[in-house]
Amino acid sequence: MSHYPLDARRMLCPMPVIKTQNLVATLNPGDTVEVFCTDHGALNDIPAWSRINGHEVIACRESDGEISITVRVGDSDDG
C-alpha cells in the first residue's frame, strides 16, 4: 500500500474533489491520498464524495488556513 500527497491548494470548488477523484481512479484499494487544500468547502465535499464512492476519510486537519484530508481508497470500481 502506498501513500500519495495531492496539492490542491488555491483551487476552488469543485477542483479539490475532481483532482482527488482523478488520482484515486489510478490507485489500488488500501492506498491513501493526503489532499492539501485551502478551500474550506473541501471539508464537506471530499468526505461526501468518499462516502458515495466507497472510500474512507481517515484524517482531517486544519491549521493556519490549510486543510489536510487523508482518504483510504476503497474497493469501489468507480474510483
User: Order of strands side by side in the largest beta sheet?
Assistant: 1-2-4-3
State the helicity in percent bands: 25-40%
What name does the CATH topology carry?
Translation Initiation Factor IF3
Structurally, how many domains make up the residues? Answer: 1
Count of DSSP E strands?
Answer: 4
Summary, kept brief:
By secondary structure, this protein is an alpha+beta fold. 27% of the residues lie in helices and 34% in strands. It is globular and about 30 Å long.
Walkthrough of the structure:
The protein has one domain: 2-Layer Sandwich (Translation Initiation Factor IF3). The chain has 2 helices and 4 strands. It has a 4-stranded mixed sheet, covered by helices on one side. Helix 1 packs parallel to helix 2. The longest helix is centred in the middle third of the chain and has 11 residues.
Characteristic terms for this protein:
alpha+beta, Translation Initiation Factor IF3, four-stranded mixed β-sheet, 2 helices
Fold blueprint:
Blueprint: E1 3-8, H1 15-24, E2 32-37, H2 42-52, E3 56-63, E4 66-72
Parallel strand pairs: 1-2
Antiparallel strand pairs: 2-4, 3-4
Helix pairs in contact: 1-2
